[in-house]
Amino acid sequence: xxxxxxxxxxxxxxxxxxxxxxxxxxxxxxxxxxxxxxxxxxxxxxxxxxxxxxx
Length: 55
Fold this sequence. Notes:
Layout: H1 15-24, E1 26-28, E2 35-37, H2 47-53
């Protein structure tokens, strides 16, 4: 997986930050210190699945 930007300060994730997330699911922003844990990130369901719930 590759992640893009820190939502807190907006800097692009470094290669090492991406590597740590892929390795153990945890990292922190080198600029602002925000912690990231993959299990805590909200992943939206596929659009087709969401649409099926509204029928």
